[in-house]
Amino acid sequence: LRSLKCRQSEYFDQQQRFASSTAPAADGSSSPSFSPSGGGTASPKVFVGHSIYKGKAALTVEPRAPEFTSLDSGAYKLSREGFVLLQFAPAAGTRVYDWSRKQVFSLSVTEIGNLIALGPRDSCEFFHDPFKGKSDEGKIRKVLKVEPLPDGSGHFFNLSVQNKLVNLDESIYIPVTKAEYTVLNSAFNFILPYLLGWHAYANSIKPNDRNRGNNANSRYGGDFEWSR
Amino acid sequence: LRSLKCRQSEYFDQQQRFASSTAPAADGSSSPSFSPSGGGTASPKVFVGHSIYKGKAALTVEPRAPEFTSLDSGAYKLSREGFVLLQFAPAAGTRVYDWSRKQVFSLSVTEIGNLIALGPRDSCEFFHDPFKGKSDEGKIRKVLKVEPLPDGSGHFFNLSVQNKLVNLDESIYIPVTKAEYTVLNSAFNFILPYLLGWHAYANSIKPNDRNRGNNANSRYGGDFEWSR
Amino acid sequence: LRSLKCRQSEYFDQQQRFASSTAPAADGSSSPSFSPSGGGTASPKVFVGHSIYKGKAALTVEPRAPEFTSLDSGAYKLSREGFVLLQFAPAAGTRVYDWSRKQVFSLSVTEIGNLIALGPRDSCEFFHDPFKGKSDEGKIRKVLKVEPLPDGSGHFFNLSVQNKLVNLDESIYIPVTKAEYTVLNSAFNFILPYLLGWHAYANSIKPNDRNRGNNANSRYGGDFEWSR
Amino acid sequence: LRSLKCRQSEYFDQQQRFASSTAPAADGSSSPSFSPSGGGTASPKVFVGHSIYKGKAALTVEPRAPEFTSLDSGAYKLSREGFVLLQFAPAAGTRVYDWSRKQVFSLSVTEIGNLIALGPRDSCEFFHDPFKGKSDEGKIRKVLKVEPLPDGSGHFFNLSVQNKLVNLDESIYIPVTKAEYTVLNSAFNFILPYLLGWHAYANSIKPNDRNRGNNANSRYGGDFEWSR
């Protein structure tokens, strides 16, 4: 049994975004994000979540949108990739789940890549500290383990949360069958380009758009790959 | 030959949706669905179905949309996942099919996941009782079996329906080649995120949308994963 | 070396569509297609094709749209699935191709499924007679063979056309590398749901659409699967 | 260890586009592209890029749109396929990257196909000369190598640039884990049909479009495949 240890630090990710001496055009690291209280036309919100209900727990999986910032040119750039939120709720009785006791875990794009690539006999482990780099660092520790079921019929998802602030130590398990995992994978594969914001670029590709900057940097003209 | 038994009870699924003591935001279990007789602007309807015609039977595969409910906030939430409807018709002669004798079977999202994940040598079986939890429970029993063809060239789809109300006991078989199964899988993979309603969320992700609630719960601020 | 023989008769397919005694709602077999000379607003046409250029021949791959018919209700139904057109042109010199001598072959949805599912060591063969069921049946015979290259680095595409009407017997070969085949597969996988028309159904699924017929046939009400 | 050598010459690609004696309708080789300074309504630009940050280097991956030209008929045709731009920046300190020293490499559609199809133990090598066919041919030589990591946990991406014009000889390495590669593959698979322009054709397929030319060349009428 192979066990991939995939320790991932969001703090590290965050720092990296702000550390580049000269960010490339597509790296939205420098300008602040919009305040959500801003005006402007809003898309109607839609709440979607796919749930798996089992005897001892329920798991709800929900996408969370990436963020964009506007540039002086009127263009937009991706400033933060989206993610997928996992919500685990323990059962409070037969087919009753106590969502007030839910525990959450947000999967980054690369963690989603881990889950998509996970073979039927692979296991994986992610570590999160929501306060990493803050004064409360180490107060909360979350571990998500995804391990193959002994009979090969699927995987166990196990979220452990140690919260020293409220003296909590909890672990929620839920078995996910191969078919359920296939549905998750299909949803993850679908949503991943949206989490990266690539759909926004893709949707902007129109045959009758005369203002594409691409032409100016024609690849075949030679100087597009000649960056220095 | 491995035989996955995947007994799935829609009644159980339904109950679960209504049993949670405190449903998460994305679990549309509490408010009633719209009546179809309501007003409002409607999209033009489109009927699509992909058919496989064979000597003794035909099989038509059609997607069925998920349902949404509106919230007081003006937002929408998924209230019921979509599904795929299988329609089996026996042949009534050479290349003639008797659709008046058709039998139907609706595949849930997880059952679709089963079919997508089915290996060339795997088989699968689903059990449905349309009246499960109703007074007529047990009166109709449907079994869909998907089994590999002996020569490995595809799978048999076999729908058996026992209907005690009209004293019917029928079984319709249709062989599906590897190529035909590939087409079904491609269609299933395409439609699955729509059945989950994730396309509606994805389509609402726009670079110039200043009203996203995401920002308020910034993942990197630490309290997004700090649910209690 | 395994050789799948996948003889497919378009005439048979066509006949089937018109032979059903009672067609299901989604099977658009009964009403005639629109004449292309009709009025109405048209989408701007876009010609796309992906080409593979080799020493002795070039191959261009182009999608062709499905067709819909309108119903009295104002709804639309798919009346004919789309396909993918392969165009083979022989080289007329170094990097020069003679498109006036091109030969074409249209891949049905199921034939596309065959190509998508084709393993690196598999081969496949399709037979077409454009006049099947017409008075000129047998006058033109086309065979597309897709066979693995001896070194496993890709597949040969070979289109043979025998045309007794103009006393022609031609064969065009083009090697397609694994990478080129991957691009074709990606394009085929993308376009397949469009060829089935499923995108039109998918795009009509909107959270705020109050007129869906789905609700009336609620799956959980029991009578949706109770077709008789 | 198998090493696929996939030398690809953009100059050759370019020449081919202009060399056909009679181009097929979908091969947009003959008319010039729009000047980017033209008027007309423009889509809001969106900059997206997915970055991988490691100890010694960072890699940013960005899609670049295909180009279309307009025809006298008012239709559009693809004139140049899109590509994916890789940008490599060396680290200038801990979590600091020097984008002023970045090196770029643009992946063609077929090169993307190579990366998508790359097995966990496969390696691949691409050679580019931005001045191929120009007077400065041979002055700049770029090699992108993608090789499996010794422990099988992912691939090394290595871009070497030899620039005789400025007497530069640089090599940037970055390890890409299996999970990160999965994210790249998912993004590549998503964007590939857009790079081919097939999304523009797909989006033009509407049920209520009465002006499709498809009908005139009905596949079942026999003369669609009868090209001569």
Would you give an account of this structure?
Four copies of one chain form a homotetramer. The first copy, chain A, has 228 residues and is of the alpha+beta class. Chain A has a domain of 159 residues: Transcriptional Coactivator Pc4, Chain A (Transcriptional Co-activator pc4, Chain A), CATH 2.30.31. In chain A, 19% of the residues lie in helices and 35% in strands. The first copy, chain A, is built from four helices and 13 strands. In chain A, strands 1-10-11-12-13 form a five-stranded mixed β-sheet. In chain A, a hairpin with a 5-residue loop joins strand 5 and strand 6. In chain A, helix 2 runs antiparallel to helix 3. The longest helix of chain A is centred in the C-terminal third of the chain and has 18 residues. The radius of gyration of chain A is 21 Å and the shape is globular. Chains in contact: A-B, A-C, A-D, B-C, B-D, C-D. The interface between B and C is large, with 77 and 66 residues.
Outline the fold blueprint.
The structure is a homotetramer of 228-residue chains.
Chain A: E1 3-5, H1 10-19, E2 46-47, E3 50-53, E4 57-64, E5 67-70, E6 76-80, E7 83-93, E8 96-97, E9 103-107, H2 109-117, E10 123-128, E11 140-148, E12 154-163, E13 168-177, H3 178-195, H4 198-203
Parallel strand pairs in A: 1-10
Antiparallel strand pairs in A: 3-4, 4-7, 5-6, 7-8, 7-9, 10-11, 11-12, 12-13
Helix pairs in contact in A: 2-3
